[in-house]
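Table S2 (continued). Query chain:
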Amino acid sequence: MMRRRHRIYKLSTSPRIGRLARGVIFYLTVVAAFVFLINACSKSKNSGVRELPDSGDAALESTDGSVTEKDVGELPDAEDLSDAATNCTSEITQITSPILHIPDEATVVSSVPIIKVSPTDLYYLLSCFIKGDDTPYGYLMRVPIRGGESVRMAVVSGGGLGSQELAVTSEAVVFSESRDGIEGAIGRVPLEGGETTTITGTNGVSRALVADNENVYFVDEEATKRVSLDGGKVQTLTSERPYSIGLVGQNLLLASPGTAPGSGTVSSVPIEGGQVTVLAREQRGPLFPVGCGTNIYWVSIGPWTNGQLMQLKPEGEPIVLAEGLNTTRDIVCDGENLFVAYGSIVRIPLDGGDRVTVETESAAEDVELDRHCIYWSNLNGIYSLALSVARGDD
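Corresponding output:
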């Protein structure tokens, strides 16, 4: 299982500090606090954070996000983005900074936030460590895609360390958590905030899940499974335990590493249950399968692959579209291009061609799209850019 990059900061103090040293530290602290206040006042309000109120938050409008063969690869619709320039411009815009939202009792942001978008909001899992506890804690956060205050929606124990632990439906945010480091659970929270509901327990922590508007599909230590978003009986779809999964029409894609180099597979299984169909064999560490149009794409980042972006057309054989993507963390499709996050964000045409760098500075690891914007995250923040710019239309 791939682990997301993490960074740990630790502070220590000595009880034997002389009076002079204490005076110097006090003076430096006052100066630092003064500088911090000046900088904080100059920042826009979208870097703030507030607790979710019990009432008074306007409910978010939702759209039908069901996945069908017809709309595979289409982007989430947005209600009215005529004023989208307020957050989605030709310049890279920082929507929020997760570092500012670490609780007082925490010591570190331990991984790059996982992000998902709805028509009006961006949701992200912020993972951190609590002082005196080696168990990571996750916080489900929400921030308007046009910028604004971040809202802490829920505590997600052990959450945020995998690459596929968050999904957004037309009504809810779905996430994976680990309550004791051994057994896990799948939970959900309404898009507009509210009480956390446990959908089902899991055998071990689920590091891969996706959802449509009826079910959540996940992988735990036993198998690949399905359960209704309302809870109930859990159905095993296959005994395979892939590293990552993806929804394509009425099928679930499974990217499994295999037991030896070059033995990985990309397969599909009907979401209602049925026979597993192997689509590609002899893959080296396949990950992040996505459907775009009638094609399927994934990246192979196992030994000796040099990070290959793969394409599979109907009735065809897998072909290599691009190489040199060994640190790939996510892939998304806008119907014409693939956007690959591997430190930089690059744009690659669906049938291959020139690779164009969209963004180079942020060490991006997670990427999302809607009809107007591309979003990505790193350890320092969550950012947006007009999709027309990312596509090279402007």
